[in-house]
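Consider the tokenized backbone below.
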């Protein structure tokens, strides 16, 4: 992913990665 997608998508991806690590 070059650059930065929409803020909503960025926040969603961060939340997903965080949840994956938390689990």
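A designed sequence for it:
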């Amino acid at each position: 992913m070059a650059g930065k997608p929409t803020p909503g998508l960025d926040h969603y991806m961060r939340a997903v990665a965080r949840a994956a690590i938390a689990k």
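The chain has a mean pLDDT of 78.
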